[in-house]
Glutamate--tRNA ligase
Amino acid sequence: MENVRVRFAPSPTGPLHIGGVRTALFNYLFAKKHGGTFVLRIEDTDQNRYVEGAENYIVEALKWCGIPFDEGPGKNETYGPYRQSERKHLYKAYADRLVAEGKAYYAFDTAEELDFHRKDHEQKGKTFIYNWHNRLKLKNALALSAEEVEAKLAAGQDYVIRFKSPQDETLHLEDIIRGNIKIDTNTLDDKVLFKADGMPTYHLANIVDDHLMEITHVIRGEEWLPSLALHVQLYEAFGWEAPKFAHLPLILKPTGKGKLSKRDGDKLGFPVFPLAWKDEKTGDVSRGYREDGYFPEAVVNFLAFLGWNPGTEQELFSLDALVAAFDLAKVNKAGARFDPDKTKWFNHHYMQEQPNHLLAEQFKIAYADKLNAIDTAYIELVIALIKERATFVYDFWDLGHFFFETPTELDEKAVKKAWKEDTEDLMKELVLVIESVDVFTVENMQQIIKGWITNNNIGFGKVMMPLRLALVGALQGPDVFEIMFLIGKNESIQRIENLIHTLQ
């Protein structure tokens, strides 16, 4: 496959949904698999919905995910500009060309008139479709005389340009994922290509830009499948070779019913955006995967499995491995259910692969008020002991706070389980044993303390449970001797004495 060029073309109307990131990822994987080019195009023709900062958000999100674009705004602008608002001078000529060739026409119907027709049809139990069925009864260039059309244009009357959809034809459309699709053209409406405000609709701008940017494959969401017939017809109308199309399956709610939305994330407690987003109008802040502590590698890995399957049991893929394995033929037609627990599973795995020194730096930043004065090398040693049970960096504090501060509270259930009548005397003896350890290493402590327990026929639980309670404040945490080694001899003894004083 030569000269593969794909594009991701989001609208800057707010934060980029995780479904959009999945679309960008699949485009990126396909491009890199075939040595092609991944293009970012900003489709900002709808100025009424434009949101300041949304474009920067999109760029930053792609960069954070590790799937940056090859061409786009401000980068390798070979086919630029890459913002549709900066290309609007191009589209009118193409719309006029279709009108001149009889493949599109001027329509002068007002919004009020069209609304009247819709309501009239509804009252009669019908659906109003602007097409071959009724266009000769409406206010357009097909129903009016040439003189009437010229007069309206000369008078500056508002108009739109509509595509003239064919009658009594069957379209055979090919989709890489869905195969052959048959469409009866009688069911299609005459879509608006150029609006009264002088801007093209998505349909026209999309086709013109894909052609001029030499896009070879259009990989986009299933929601665009109903537009495929029009887009293919536009390519034919212009006499251009159409790109190959692939429509990705929907990302479904965790229940498997309906499309995943921000409301689902808010309700069930997970983000649906790659980065946090603040709505400047309302002040509301939407959670992001980055701010929630996810690693970008984990986000990319779980997104890849939303609709794609490598055909093997393997689930963990680096980005390079995804590029090597990716195949549009292995993308499913059916919607992909979003599983928040599975995303955490991926993040847990990538947590284990992170270098401890990097995790220590992130942990120190996240808990600067508690860890600022603590040596990063010490934090790194702590993380080595607790990371196996962690999914996020912020889990480290709950899993290992006792490495950095003396426990001030005791778990009540743990106290009842660990503290018996003879425990106080055993703990006092244990203090003496610990004091006798000259070289305070994990191995020495294990040998001396376990030797003392064995030689005195003491049950291990009778010593180790209250010892852990003293060190941690609960009956959990990593190896007791590792804890003692890190917090030091004096602190270990002090915590045992604190426990004796508290419970005596």
Remarks:
- The domain at 89-194 is CATH 3.90.800.10 (Glutamyl-tRNA Synthetase; domain 3).
- The chain has four domains: 1-72+249-353, 89-194, 354-392, 412-503.
- DSSP finds 21 helices and 13 strands in the chain.
